[in-house]
């Protein structure tokens, strides 16, 4: 198995990880934290994928994809916090005014879980942010201890995986997802 993580640039590869089976479905496409709430509610069905395609064409940083033997098998969303709703989120605090990047979604395709891809995705997202000049990367994972987490709701990642990647606890939040508190983890890149 050969795994390579690189910046998302091909729409079909992004669609393979984030797109719906049915074109009319209103799946997230990893837009809910990326765009204003009003626009997120307005974009329906195929318009969601079209918006992602436009973002890719514009060169906006969307995230990274993991490829296993050339096929896309994992996704991590990472972008400047200022370009996300985390810039205004009342439940997730700002530690300081550093122009950090946010890493908020990790997705591994079924059939490829348990292979360490989430670790490769976190590392790849950090390297991408570093290459773009990010002074630090923040994540907002679940602090689930040893409790099981529904895989659908595990998209922000787990605290222990970010600790393993060198992130440190920077603040508690008032955000709870699937019954688990989320914490603010940070990795300084300076």
TrEMBL record:
This is GNAT family N-acetyltransferase. It comes from the Bacteria. Residues 1-190 form the N-acetyltransferase domain. Gene3D superfamilies: 3.40.630.30.
